[in-house]
Write a structure and sequence with these properties.
82% helix; 2 domains; 557 residues; mainly alpha
């Protein structure tokens, strides 16, 4: 028995020499797939004007990426485990880069949405592969540190996307935000083949394709329902998607419980550490994506920053994520993940609570503290959760483990944008209706202004342009009576434009405060649930499966 163990133990003492360079490639791959969403938030106005997108078109340009991304991760993660995790990463980068080229060449709403969907398929290959390769390449003693850097990269991407897109949009069109992904993907492909060691599961059992397809059906239908219902009404499409999601989920659970080698052993969710970690990831990204959605709008529309200026002002969040990640890397081994995760979620709740103080007079300085606290909270909470989720899976299922973590993240983010975004729109419309009650502005203009904050400012701008045109006519008029009438009309329209501008800004600020309150309540309740679920202290003695996984992981190096 000692002779059998000698070689693996020696290998454990010599982990893969270029593992930190490999991590750099994995983080670079993660960076572009997260930035693909956050960069679009600042490119959307230019795209809308150029392509004449409706609000429904724009919503699906954003979410056409999310549906295949979330739906396919579990199945593609399992396929990567069986055949090649590095192969899945490289193929994903090829597909993602191809979708980016397609997006650059797109000239209609349909082609942009299709390009985003192709990029979503690529992301579904890349995302679980990054985590599974990380776990397979690093020994257990270093894995938490590596995951901390992986998580910090995700936080950096959230803020870096608007900065990069904003810089490009100053001199180039919206399509450049697609093309920038291509050279990065090419570099990542070459670096992956050179620096990342091959890795796949040790066993060769058949993949549970039925379970995988059921996961695609119920996850895809759920994401579609989350997008369709709040934004476009609970009509036939949304209700049908809800039914398919419910039936698909039940069928998936029943199938997985009976299958001898399920694609995902759903019994794992009975473990408090696993369930609590997944819930924390989902709730955190519900809050982060929801808050990011309306904070970028407030900075651009209400405070008047351009795309680059908006991105730069989100950078304190990214810096705080790195600080929080460093702190959790020090604290979690000493006090346990229950305390760092709970502290992070309390911090996130506090950040949203501070945003309830936003009003028409708020400046960027009022957003700085919430951004920093939110970044610290992300860094504190997410690395321990991801490490706990990945640590639950044996070496043969690391791709599935990464997919579970990333699906929780994506479901939470989609829910955040859908729930908080829908609430924001409703609150803004109600506040604007109250603010303009009794005004002499045309009813059609008021209806248009209630659609979104961007539409509201566009209406105000249009009224102001009409006022300037009438004032110019008055200056040229030779009839004094006509000139006086034109001046009076111009003055009334100018006053209406000022009233509309103020009403739009104050209404959106009030909507941000109201939405933040709801988000704080949701995350606060979730914090209590996660604190109850997570065990006080995880076991420090590894079980037999963990030891076996360590031997297999180190052998891969």
């Amino acid at each position: 028995m000692r002779l059998v163990m000698t070689e693996p133990v020696e290998k454990m003492e010599r982990p893969y020499a270029r593992r930190w360079w490999a991590l750099l490639v994995l983080c670079l791959s993660l960076l572009i797939i997260v930035m693909a969403n956050t960069a679009l938030t600042v490119a959307a106005p230019d795209m809308t004007r150029d392509l004449g997108l409706s609000s429904a078109d724009l919503q699906w340009v954003i979410d056409g990426y999310t549906v295949p991304y979330a739906a396919l991760m579990l199945l593609l993660g399992a396929i990567g485990d069986k055949y090649s995790r590095r192969g899945a990463l490289v193929l994903g980068l090829v597909v993602f880069g191809g979708g980016a080229v397609f997006g650059y060449l797109a000239d209609s709403a349909a082609t942009v949405i299709a390009a985003r969907a192709v990029m979503g398929v690529g992301a579904a290959l890349i995302m679980p592969a990054t985590l599974s390769l990380l776990a397979a390449t690093f020994p257990r003693a270093e894995r938490a540190k590596a995951i901390t850097l992986w998580t910090a990269t995700a936080g950096l991407a959230i803020a870096a996307g608007p900065v990069v897109a904003g810089a490009l949009l100053r001199n180039h069109g919206w399509s450049s935000t697609f093309l920038i992904n291509v050279p990065v993907a090419v570099v990542a492909i070459v670096a992956a083949l050179v620096l990342i060691p091959p890795s796949k599961a040790g066993h060769h059992d058949r993949i549970d394709y039925v379970g995988g397809l059921l996961s695609v059906v119920w996850t895809g239908a759920l994401i579609y329902m989350i997008i369709e219902g709040p934004h476009f009404g609970w009509g036939v499409k949304a209700v049908t998607a809800a039914v398919i999601a419910g039936v698909g989920l039940v069928a998936f659970v029943l199938w997985e419980l009976r299958h001898p080698r399920p694609i995902l052993d759903v019994r794992r969710f009975t473990g408090r550490r696993f369930a609590g970690s997944n819930l924390a990831v989902a709730l955190f990204f519900l809050a982060v994506f929801g808050a990011f959605y309306y904070l970028t709008q407030h900075l651009q529309f209400v405070l008047g920053y351009d795309a680059l200026e908006t991105g730069v002002r989100m950078l304190p969040l990214a810096g705080a994520v790195f600080v929080g990640s460093a702190v959790t890397g020090f604290l979690t081994p000493r006090v346990g993940m229950k305390w760092t995760v709970t502290a992070g979620m309390v911090g996130g709740t506090t950040a949203l609570a501070l945003l309830t103080q936003v009003d028409a007079g708020s400046t960027y300085s009022d957003f700085l503290a919430p951004l920093i606290i939110l970044g610290l909270a992300i860094g504190l909470a997410l690395s321990p959760c991801t490490d706990a989720i990945m640590g639950t899976f044996p070496e043969s299922e690391l791709g599935v483990g990464g997919a579970v973590n990333d699906t929780s993240l994506e479901l939470g983010g989609s829910l955040g944008i859908a729930i908080l975004g829908s609430l924001l729109a409703t609150s803004y419309g109600n506040h604007l209706s109250d603010a303009t009650a009794g005004s002499k502005l045309p009813a059609s203009a008021l209806d248009t202004a209630q659609d979104s904050v961007g539409a509201g400012y566009a209406v105000a701008q249009g009224i102001g342009d009409k006022a300037h045109a009438l004032a110019a006519q008055a200056a040229k008029a030779t009839d004094p009576q006509q000139a006086a009438q034109l001046k009076q009309q111009a003055a009334e329209l100018a006053a209406g434009a000022r009233q509309m501008t103020h009403a739009v800004g104050s209404s959106f600020s009030d909507a941000v405060a109201h939405t933040s309150l709801v988000g704080a309540v949701i995350l606060g309740i979730g914090t209590i649930l996660v604190a109850v679920l997570l065990p006080r202290r995880e076991a420090t003695t590894p079980d037999v499966k963990t030891e076996e996984r360590e031997l297999a992981n180190s052998s891969a190096g």
